[in-house]
Amino acid sequence: MSVSKKVQELLETHKDIKGVFCQACETSTGVYHPVEELGALIKKHPNTLLLIDAITALGISDLKTDAWGIDVIITGSQKAFMLPPGLAMMSFSEKALKAQATSKLPRYYFDIQEALKAQAKNTTFFTPPISLIQGLSVALDMMTEETLPKIFSRHQ
């Protein structure tokens, strides 16, 4: 049974599933997971989020967050962005932000609402790693110059 069919079966059997977590690809083997297929399935379940670990994949492969229905995607500075570890970058859909805002789970370091409040004031929730942010700016300039299609092709 394919991963997508198993997830579909679980979603139909357990109506209270709030999130499906998946890696975009497996670092050591390079195996890609069916993120686009999972997104299509989960779009049919308005109370379920699709959360993608794209630590290895984001920046080297095409991940269409909005088109594929990815609600949360996370990556780090240490792979495609060519930097030391220390930065985490995340994207949230409106659906994910609403779920996070109403969640009763305890949080402190992972409080997205507090991070968004800080961003609205053009600051950060915690002390930022300035040297990594400066390095990220250079890496993004390099990636822009090469273009994403060329980067995706090179890594494929």
Summarize the structure in short.
With 156 residues, the protein is of the alpha/beta class.
How does this model look, in words?
The model has no long low-confidence stretch (mean pLDDT 94). The chain has seven helices and four strands; from the N terminus they run αβαβαββαααα. 42% of the residues lie in helices and 13% in strands. Helix 1 runs parallel beside helix 2 (35-42). It has helices spanning 3-13, 35-42, 65-68, 94-102, 112-120, 130-146, 148-155, and strands at residues 19-23, 49-53, 72-76, 88-92. The protein has one domain (3-155): Aspartate Aminotransferase, domain 2 (3-Layer(aba) Sandwich), CATH 3.40.640.10. The longest helix has 17 residues, at 130-146. It is of the alpha/beta class and 156 residues long.
Name its key features.
Aspartate Aminotransferase, domain 2; alpha/beta; 7 helices; 156 residues; globular; four-stranded mixed sheet; 42% helix
* Residues in β-strands, percent: 5-15%
Distance between the termini: 26 Å
Number of strands: 4
Helicity range: 40-55%
SS-based class: alpha/beta
Please outline the helices and strands.
Blueprint: H1 3-13, E1 19-23, H2 35-42, E2 49-53, H3 65-68, E3 72-76, E4 88-92, H4 94-102, H5 112-120, H6 130-146, H7 148-155
Parallel strand pairs: 1-2, 2-3
Antiparallel strand pairs: 3-4
